Every structure is written in C-alpha cells, then in structure tokens.
Amino acid sequence: MNNYSFASIVEQHLRNEGNLRKFKSILVATLLVPTVAMASPETNHETEPFTVSTGVTQQSKTIKGTVVDETGEPLIGVSIAVKGTTNGTVTDMDGNFTLPRVSGKDVITLTYVGYHPINQTIGNQTVFKFTMKEDTKTLDEVVVVGFGSQKKVNVTGAVSQVSAEALEARPVQNVSQALQGVVPGLNFSTNNSGGELNNTLSVNIRGGGTIGEGSSSSPLVLIDGMEGNMNALNPQDIESISVLKDAASAAVYGSRAPFGVILITTKKGKSGRATVNYNNSMRFTDPLLTPKMMDSYSFAQYFNEAAANNGQSPVFNDEMMGRIQAYQSGELEAGTTLNKNSNRWNEYGGANANTDWFKEHYKKWAFSQEHNISVNGGNEKVTYLISGNFMDTNGLLRFSNDNYQRYSINSKLNAQISDWVSLSYGGRWVREDYDRASYQGGLFYHNIARRWPTNPLYDPNGFLMEGSEAIQLRDGGRDKDQKDWNYQQLQLTFEPIKDWKIYAEGNMRTTDRFNHWEVLPVYAHDGSGDAYPMKWNDDYSTPGMSRVSEYAWKENFYTTNLYTDYFKNFDNGHYFKAMVGFNAELLNARNVSGSRDGLITPNVPTINTATSNQKAGGGYSHWSTAGFFGRINY
C-alpha cells in the first residue's frame, strides 16, 4: 500500500487541472492567515479535520501603467510601491511601469521629487494612467549644500533637509538621538559604551563602507562650515540640517567626505525688538527590557543537571537545595551561611539567596532636566543672538550614582558693514562633565548577567557581599571626565557687483579634555562584622591596592576658506551658478598622562599623594590638508 501526503494528492489533482500555481498561492495565503476560518464554541479543535478555504484570499495579478506630468510628458524614475510591503518598481524612459504580485485590496503609492505623491487603490483595474502635479512649495525650498545654498529644484544629488521644528520638540540628549527616524538612509548604531550617559550613536549614510582599514564609515560633519562634533551641540541651537548622501552632492569636499556630509546651520538673530525665550524639560527615565533572571532553585537544578551530563558530582547537594527552597518560601531569612574553614560568608554554591541582579543594580527611575534660554534682536544693519543651555542627566545604576552635565553658550552676530560688505561672527563654548564609578567600565555589564542568583546582595549582618560588585561601584573610586569645546568663526562677504559674491572665512576650534581615574581600596565584612580588604577586579587583584591615573589632551584645529560664486537667472527660465574656491585645514594635538599606585589616604586621591610605581606618557599628532574645489549648476 502506498502512502501519499495530503499536499501531494492535491498537487497531483491540480496539475491535472492545469491550475497548480493558483492553488499554491491560495494555500500559502491560507496557512499564513489561520484566523479566517471561524469555529463555533462547540467545535472540537483537536479532532477538526484540516480544510482549505479558497474564498477568502484574493488572487494576485500584474498591473501596468504610465506616469506623466501635467503637460503629458512621461516621468522617468517615478517610485511605485505597494503600501506596507517591499513590492515596488520605477517607471522607465517612457514613463511606463509593470508591477506584479498585487491584489485588488492593495494600495499603490507613487512618489517623485518635486511632485505631490499619489495613493491609489487597485480594485479591478489592471491598466492605469497617472498624472502627477508639481509641488511648487517643495521645489522652492532652499537647501544648504557644500559652500552655499540652492533651491531644491536645482539640486541634482541626493540631499535631505531637516528643519528646526523637527528637532526642538524631541526630548533628547544630543543631535544624533534627535535625527533618529527623521532622515531616510541615515543609520545609527550603539558603540561599545552601551547605555552609559555620555554614549553617542555612531552614524553612517546608507550603510557601512569598506574604504580604509578600521574605517567607521562616518560622514563628515560641518557646523556652520567647520568640522565639529554634532553631539556637543545643543539641538535647540540648530536652524537646519542638510544630509548630502551621494558622491554627486558631496563631491565638493573631495577625499574628506567619502561617506557623505552632514551640514548643520545654527540659528542667527532676527531684526526687531529684543526677544527673550526660555523653555525647560523635566523627564524621568526607567530601564527598558531588562532581562528576567532565573530563580535560584531552577538555576541550581539546571546547574546540577549540567554537572551530571559532564560526569561530575552535583554543585548543589540536597542540603543546599533545601535551603534554597526554604529561602524562597520565606522559612529562612539568611541568604548565605558562614564558610566552615573561615569566618567569611559563602558565595555561589554555598549560598541560598534568590537575587535578581538586574533589579538590584538598576533603579526604578532616574530624573533628568534641561533648561534653554536665548536672547535675539537687532535692526536692518545688525542682528544678534545669544543662547545658553544646561542639561543634567542622572544614570540608572543604583550604586554608581553616575551623572552627566552639559553647559553651552552660543553667540551669533551679523552686520552689514557697507552696501557691498557684510560680516558674520559665531562663537560657541561647550562643556561636558561625566562622573561615574571607575568600576563601571570594562566587563561590568557583562558580569551582571553572569552573577549567580544564589548569591545575596547583603550578608546577614546587613553589609554588602563581596561577590555582588556593588562594593566596587560604591567605594572603589570615581572616573571623572571633562571636555571643553571652544569654536570661533568669522566670515566676510563681499559683493562688488550684483550676484557676484566673494567669501573669506577663518575658523578655529580648541578642544580640551581632562580625565581623572582612580582605584580605591574596597572592603567586605566577615561573620563578626570586621572589615577585610578584597580585590578590586582581576586586573587589580591585590587586596587593598589603590591607583590614580590622569590624562590631559588638547587639540587646535584651524580652517581657511576662500571662495567666490556667481549667479544668473535668465528670462527664458534658464539658471546658471558657478562657484570656485580654496580650502586649507590644520590640526595639532598633544596629550600627556601619568599614574601612580599606593595612595597614602583614599580621601585625597591625587598622583602626589601616591607612593609607588610611577608611570608617565604622552604623544603628539599633526596633519594638514589643502585643495581647490568648484561647482557649476545650469
């Protein structure tokens, strides 16, 4: 007797009927949507035979069409996509398209730069003709491009523009967070710092690259024409952001921008009476999606099973398993016992607590605040703007008490010196302070997940246990980092004749960083409540050891831009703009570091108050570049 599956019987039958393809599409759709068959409450689902329903799934079809503008001219490269899917196509040289695998319920969306989008339900039609209307408002928008600005209609490269309104309402810490989900093709990823308060997102445009060993594929970031750190900028000081995504739009920056460019323009003053603006943000943060740890009894069972599979004796004997159960049921108060060979508390296999280390190490919430104030005004000749920002963010780690603060002052002055000469000055100072436990780095977050739930956080006398890492966080020293950015930018614009402008720019950025890092002695307590020194971690394994390290870094960056452009609009609707210029950049950086072990007292953790193993280091780096650039638009 031959055994045939249900699918093979139906397949053979439909092959004979010449309708196999239709059935396969119906069968797949039916399996993906199991809720289409309704059963009464009396239906026995365990004995209900398998049935195939063909009446609820629409057949797929192929549609064709043409897309033209209001004059009847075909539009090339119009994007046509089925809403909510990845199924799509584009129009060819004659404005025609073909789109397979669609149903009557589907909605297709047509999009094209400079035109209003079209949404159309397919229905019973298979042939379409669409007429797209120009979006004159979009085409007249001015976007910032390399060394200038242009109307969007005249931009040939891939450029996305973000306005101040899109950023101001977002309660974020820095610009990279504000840009998430705003610019198509702009990708973000976290780095090795994880969720630390001073962590910033890595950015790339349209995915990673392979140029340069170890390259991050990060775009060039220019703030008012000078390279800078966008995450040290107050998002509320931003007027607009342009993202140059492809080689055509970023070509004017040459080898400095192989992965695209992010152009940030900050706000400037407006003519009129002086205006004072103030706003603040108060927010609460809680940990998201923290892993749920296994209870200690289940953990011990799995651990014993793993040991047995490896031919070893159980790690948790019957007496230990009984204590774990008694602790979980509330019959036993102590989460551990004294070691038989010493007066110290047992950990791991000798302990019987039921600890969720994520709950113990993370607070339920943390408070953050931000304050912004600005003053701007002026007249037809001179405008000014001064703004200030303060941000204070607290971390979620219970024993670390980490804190991040940012202070910034921004100023802008624009003056019309004469009919053909104007001046623009910008100054900005930013300070970041980050204070955290020294132990918070390295494998700390990794070790939380590896901690056994049988270990208690506190011993029966109420002292923190040695194996919890809470002692190192609370008492093991601080890691304090301070960064200062000072930007000075000056631009002179000359217009000797109408539509011909000459620009002279001089920019300077100074960056200072100082880091203080310390390892202080940490102590646990034995069964009598007496303190004893413990190791800090595997790298600092000598119990009671101490160390102080300090690092200072200073960087000076200078840029000079000299360029000129000429613009002409002809009566017949033609447009011409040419630009040529020179750019030079110079960077000098120097650092020095030192460390020393053996603090005389942990209350004064400085290099001068340490006594042994003195080390010193330093370094210097320098680079410069210069080049010519140009652009012609017609």
Please give a structural write-up:
The chain is mainly β and 634 residues long. The chain folds into five domains: 1-57, no CATH class; 61-137, Immunoglobulin-like (Sandwich), CATH 2.60.40; 140-266, Ferric Hydroxamate Uptake Protein, Chain A, domain 1; 296-354, no CATH class; 361-633, no CATH class. The chain is 13% helix and 42% strand. The protein is built from eleven helices and 28 strands. It has helices at 6-17, 20-32, 136-139, 165-168, 175-178, 247-250, 296-309, 318-329, 357-361, 444-450, 470-475, and strands at residues 61-68, 79-82, 88-90, 96-102, 107-111, 118-121, 127-131, 142-145, 148-151, 159-163, 186-189, 202-205, 220-223, 226-227, 238-244, 261-266, 272-285, 366-378, 382-394, 403-416, 421-437, 478-497, 500-519, 522-525, 531-534, 547-569, 575-599, 610-633. The strands form seven sheets. It has a ten-stranded antiparallel beta sheet. Strands 10-15-16-13-14 form a five-stranded mixed beta sheet. A four-stranded antiparallel beta sheet has the order 3-2-5-6, with no helix packed on it. The model is unreliable at 1-57 (pLDDT under 50).
